[in-house]
Design goal:
The complex is a heterodimer of chains A (423) and B (255). Chain A has 423 residues and is an alpha/beta fold. Chain A contains 19 helices and eight strands. The radius of gyration of chain B is 19 Å and the shape is globular. Chain B has a domain at 5-79 and 239-254: 2-Layer Sandwich (Nucleotidyltransferase, domain 5), CATH 3.30.420. Chain B contains eight helices and ten strands. Classes of the chains: A alpha/beta (423), B alpha/beta (255). The interface between A and B is medium-sized, with 13 and 14 residues.
């Protein structure tokens, strides 16, 4: 990474502590990513983004702020980025995916909080992530009890707006979500000083739909056997999509998809044809959490799809682009976002249907249902997931883990045995 | 080249087990010690001492130290190997393998693994738990079980080895009978193992393998918790190594 110390210091970061993170990341990335063979050329962009992870994009966001723009940090894919971009703001994902931030999080949160929340809060309170420093406002949501309380901790240090999520999917819940998006619009308008109009909202809807279409194109390529892209590389693209400029994200994903489609025509894969194909489902994997994918792909199998927030849920379903009024646009936004099937909803049959559909579409030989420790909702829903898959004759392995590497060998045994079981 | 012996090596966290099938039929066990590569070399020396030529053998390694066996043809997880070690005689069964640091329950249908479950990173419900408690009672593991058979169960936590040990210290301080404490220890480990194994269907016979699979009292205690009879797999300690040797023979036949 180039030298960004001046920028980090001006952001009020704990630069010394942050240097420790910068020191380990290149090795971790090299071991996990650069050791892969036969990677698509267009992964070079994503490698570059990681190599400059706390430099290039933060500098862009600061430029935006210098020009009078606002940056809003989000933690969940129910938050409609369209509103932020329509008002001339930038939305950027803030989820923490490293154990590095967990100890700082544990200073203010109970230990039995999920690592994603601990890392996210730790990145803020420890002042060791530029994105958490740059964001002018955080946008939370009430998807789980841990997050609800975490916003209260974060709000002591940074402006936080919380969207109140419905917990069911009845018509009145969609109506409620339209109302919440309206409140969010009011907050964003006041914060940015810009109005959300039918025109700028339409442009934002198209911008983010284009990003979704591009990511979906890359995923569609993963249905091929031999698979032209490793699961690790696909995961990296998704993780970066959360905070990259949406237009550039679409452009780069489309370039990657062009290359992958050519690879498919050439019968060119990154794993041998017939390699056991795994669908991963469950909790999100925020950057730089590559642990499970790395274990799977060094145990004789390949990840072909992720049914999770850092997977299909991020791009499946588009917002209708043919709305005539701003009211229709709000309704279209609410409908699209409410199609996401997170375990925070009850009942959540839609997610089970998604998993079964994706297992078939991606020709998965088996499913690994992974749960971040202390995520009660996904943990409990795991029973339904396993039952439905077994009923369909699809082998499934349930795993629980966190951001530490201490359970890697145990996980390797389980994953290895699961792959052996697939034959 | 003619392969004369098929060798399964199972390097667990506590003991390394070796089974040889073919021209030589033998098995032996060594302590794992602190270095799996050293153990792998000790096994090689022992095999050579017994007249086995590694160059004429096909070796499959399993267990935690499987990757340390440089002279192995391949590595296979202990879950698959324990299953292979039982499948010929018991094609439909549930295997409970209580190992030094892991406990696994493995479900077999028609000789194939179709589901398994393994404990999280926690020593309660593993051989390590029993080993620590036996040390606390100043006896070996076999003695702990024979004491337990004569005792009345004292309640001991099955959640955490460290908590359980402090409870035992409390019982020792109160002058409780050693037999009763031993019975509590066995009850605790059985409870934890049963909690896990119950998540798999137990419609067929249940077989015990691993380092505690020669202990009738343990099988009975576990059977009470599971409300299902538990049988001791003959030479169950060697099930993983035996399975690895069988898989080596199968691989040799396919080559």
């Amino acid at each position: 990474m180039a030298d960004y110390h001046e920028m980090w210091e001006s952001l009020g970061m704990d630069v010394k502590a942050h240097d420790q993170l910068c020191a380990v990341l290149p090795t971790a990335f090299g071991d996990t990513y650069l050791s892969q063979e036969n990677r698509p050329e267009n992964m070079a962009y994503y490698d570059f983004v990681v190599s400059e992870i706390h430099g290039v994009r933060p500098a862009e966001l600061i430029e935006h702020q210098k020009a009078g723009g606002k940056v809003l940090g989000t933690f969940c894919l129910y938050v409609p980025d369209e509103i932020v971009f329509a008002a001339g703001g930038i939305a950027t994902g803030l989820c923490g995916g490293s154990q590095f931030w967990v100890p700082d999080g544990e200073k203010v949160l109970p230990k039995n909080t999920c690592p994603l929340i601990k890392a996210s809060v730790g990145a803020r309170v420890g002042r060791t992530c530029p994105f958490f420093r740059i964001a002018d406002m955080y946008v939370g949501e009430t998807t789980c009890d841990g997050k609800k309380k975490a916003w209260e901790v974060l709000a002591e240090d940074v402006p936080v707006h919380v969207m109140d999520m419905p917990q069911m999917k009845r018509p009145q819940d969609v109506q409620k979500w339209i109302g919440e998006i309206g409140i969010f619009r009011d907050v964003v308008e006041k914060f940015t000083g810009n109005k959300v109009t039918k025109e700028n909202l339409q442009a934002a809807i198209v911008l983010l739909n284009e990003k979704r279409r591009a990511l979906a194109r890359v995923f569609a390529c993963r249905k091929a056997d031999p698979v032209p892209l490793s699961g690790k590389d696909a995961l990296l693209m998704m993780q970066i999509a959360f905070y990259d400029d949406p237009g550039r994200c679409a452009e780069m994903a489309n370039k990657l998809a062009d290359e992958l489609e050519q690879r498919i025509r050439d019968g060119h894969g990154v794993f041998a044809k017939g390699t056991k194909r795994i669908l991963v489902t469950g909790t999100p994997m925020a950057i730089p959490n590559w642990k499970l994918h790395h274990l799977i792909e060094t145990s004789g199998a390949v990840v072909v799809c992720e049914e999770c927030c850092t997977g299909t849920r991020y791009f499946e379903n588009l917002v209708a682009e043919d709305c005539q009024t701003i009211e229709e646009q709000f309704s279209a936004l609410a409908k699209r976002y409410m199609k996401n099937n997170c375990a925070c909803f009850t009942p959540n049959q839609g997610r089970i249907d998604d998993i079964l559909r994706l297992a078939k579409e991606y020709k998965a030989d088996g499913v690994i249902d992974v749960n971040l420790k202390f995520c009660t909702l996904y943990d409990m829903e795991g029973r339904d997931v396993e039952r439905a898959l077994k009923k369909e004759g699809i082998p499934v392995l349930g795993l629980e883990t966190d951001y530490t590497d201490t359970d890697a060998e145990q996980l390797r045994t389980r994953i290895g045995a699961f792959v052996e079981m697939l034959g | 080249m003619e392969i004369t012996n098929y060798i399964g090596i199972d390097i667990g966290s506590t003991a390394a087990k070796v089974v040889v099938l073919g021209a030589a039929e033998l098995r032996f066990v060594l302590p794992t010690g602190w270095s799996s590569p050293d153990t792998a070399q000790a096994i090689r020396r022992e095999l050579e001492r017994q007249g086995i030529v590694l160059a004429d053998s096909l070796v499959i390694a399993t267990g935690y130290g499987r990757r340390a066996v440089a002279y192995a043809e391949t590595q296979i997880t202990e879950i698959t190997c324990h299953a292979a070690g039982c499948a010929d005689e018991h094609p439909n069964c549930t295997i409970i393998d209580v190992g030094g640091q892991d406990t696994k329950a493995i479900h077999l249908t028609d000789g194939k693994v179709d589901d398994f479950i393994m404990n999280d990173k926690c020593s309660a419900g593993t051989g390590k738990f029993v080993e620590i408690m036996a040390n606390r009672l100043s006896c070996d593991i076999d003695t702990l079980f024979s004491l337990a058979a004569k005792g009345k169960i004292l309640p001991i936590s099955s959640l955490c080895t460290v908590f359980a040990e402090s409870e035992i210290i409390g019982y020792i301080g109160n002058g409780c009978k050693r037999e009763d404490i031993a019975a509590g220890i066995v009850d605790s480990v059985s409870e934890k193992v049963a909690q896990m194994a119950q998540k798999l269907p137990l419609e067929h016979e249940v077989l015990l393998t691993g380092g505690l699979s020669h202990l009738q009292y343990f099988a009975e205690s576990l059977g009470r918790k599971l409300r299902h009879p538990v049988a001791l797999r003959a030479n169950g300690r060697y099930a993983g190594a035996y399975g690895a040797a069988l898989l080596a023979r199968r691989r040799g036949a396919a080559q």
